[in-house]
Amino acid sequence: MENSSIEVHNLSVSYQNVPVLWDIDFSLPKGQIVGIIGPNGSGKSTLLKAIMGLIPLASGNVKVLNKNLSLVRDQLAYVPQRETVDWNFPASVEDVVLMGRYKKGNLFRRLTKIDKVIAQESIEKVKLEKYRDRQISQLSGGQQQRVFIARALAQGASIYIMDEPFVGVDMATEKTILDLLIQMKEDGKTIIIVHHDIQTVSNYFDYIVMLNTRLIAHGPTNEVLTEENLQATYGGQLNIISKIQSIIKEKEFPLREKGFEDK
Amino acid sequence: MELNDFLTLLTAITIAVSCSLLGCFLVLRKTVMVGDAISHSVLPGIAIAYLLSSSFNSVFMLIGAAIFGVFTTLIIDFFHKKLKLQEDASIGITFTWLFAIGIIIITLFTNSNTDLDQDCVLFGELSSTFLDKIIVGEYLIGTRSFWMIFPVFLIILVFILFGYKGLSIISFNEDYAKSLGINVGFINLIFMSLVSVTTVMSFESVGAILVVGLLVIPPATAYLITNKLKRMLIYSCLLAITSCIIGFYLSILIDVTASSIIIVVSGAMFLFAFFIINIKKMLNI
């Protein structure tokens, strides 16, 4: 596809000969908020790691902006799951956000004034300027998530890949993060998010990839988010059926009070 | 201060500071037990190098140790990630096995006259390091132990000064560092090699068991006191130096091995810091 942000071709990943992702093939549009959804163990995080080149592929390839990853690595910013790091690490908010300015080329040199200005701007974008010098363990879950997003923003990339950014954050933070994502989208950024809460899918994402080891469906949310596809993705998980019904209901009664379903 | 005391103390401090600097990152990465494993499993490397060159004073020994140290981390990784054995079990298997091989090599192939014996390997003998002086022309330029650890200390210092950003980002969030295109494997390799080489250099003076104390206790104490990484590095060095000085003089006073007193003092400082911080917390509430 000419205008794709990320293309994945025949991608398979396995752990100890058990396939976690099998023959995944899709391409994602630019400048949209894309959701990757599927049940636990469906390979969502693995797919992100495969796109970022963090794990070996059993087969297939990934193209970012029509190029090999190594050529456009600086266009890709990764926001890992918040729980994957130890927040007791001795660092301040600013220290962590500055890490977004680390590159292969400047790793053994000092950061410049420009780096610091960019980090400061990124902290302001996520509204954490009051907490700039605070130790990261003294932040709430939502604030920690925003620190991670600020760090990614500091990279100045055009594609943002986020692993479950809404997990363990309160409603107010969820709204703050979502507003920020919409702002980023308006700035022309592409945002790809692994998400597990199917209740909110139709409100958050322009485009979705439905995954359960195999690719179930991908496309604009209003076309792809059908009962049939949800069955295929979450099938077998009986407790999910009730959720699916509630989603269908939600489609008839969108959560207007949240105020972002038109974006 | 007597010259011999000064030389011994200088050696102890250089070793302790080298260990503390590396130990900070071991503590932050939660891989202290890997450091412990390395400190034991370099033994076959030392023994083989000793047999080949029949002295402590060789580049062989460093290379042998570095190889075995890195080899240890690779085996632990292999057991843990490929064979899905839990990490502590992988560590336990790897280092005891290699250490045992080292002991067998020493008992079988060295005779009773050699410097390398099991006591020396386990506990070291800091207070005898001053016996082996290096004299150039008419000038005493230090002890052999000091000149063995000092270059390693300088390399560690340079590595931490220049590699600070890399080390800190890998310690905090390794996957993210990889996503930035940083060569994580290379930095880890240098780091683990330095841990191996440092433990070998410390062998003679403090032994395989107590070197772990130097790697962990001052950094862990500094970790309690501060929440800034740069300060943690500086404080752990200061703590290491202080415990060396206090420990050394106490060892003369009550006539026991210096290395064990140094660790005991270190541990006492840790407990002290722990109590002070908790009392402070209680008073604040």
Shape of chain B: globular
Helicity level of chain A, as a percent range?
25-40%
Evaluate the radius of gyration of chain B. Answer: 19 Å
What is the typical, i.e. mean, pLDDT of chain B? Answer: 87
**Which segments of chain A are poorly predicted (pLDDT under 50) over 5 or more consecutive residues?**
254-263
| Estimated share of beta-strand residues of chain B | under 5%
How many individual domains of chain B? 1
* SSE succession of chain A: EEEHEEEHHHEHEHEEHHH
Taking the sheet with the most strands of chain A, its summary is:
6 strands, mixed
3D architecture notes:
- The complex is a heterodimer of chains A (263) and B (285).
- Chain A has helices at residues 44-51, 93-98, 113-125, 141-154, 171-186, 201-204, 221-224, 227-234, 238-252, and strands spanning 4-15, 18-29, 33-37, 59-64, 67-68, 76-79, 159-163, 190-195, 207-212, 214-220.
- Chain A is α/β, with parallel strands linked by helices and 263 residues long.
- In chain A, the strands form two sheets. Chain A has a six-stranded mixed β-sheet, sandwiched between helices.
- In chain A, helix 3 crosses helix 4 and helix 8 (227-234) packs antiparallel against helix 9.
- The longest helix of chain A is centred in the C-terminal third of the chain and has 16 residues, at 171-186.
- By secondary structure, chain B is mainly alpha-helical.
- Chain B has a single domain (3-123, 131-284), classed as Orthogonal Bundle (ABC transporter involved in vitamin B12 uptake, BtuC), CATH 1.10.3470.10.
- Chain B is 81% helix and 3% strand.
- Chain B has helices at residues 3-28, 32-41, 43-53, 59-82, 87-109, 118-123, 144-172, 174-179, 184-225, 229-254, 258-284, and strands spanning 133-136, 139-143.
- The longest helix of chain B is centred in the C-terminal third of the chain and has 42 residues, at 184-225.
- The chains are: A alpha/beta (263), B mainly alpha (285).
- Chains A and B meet through strand 6 of A and helix 7, helix 8 and helix 10 of B.
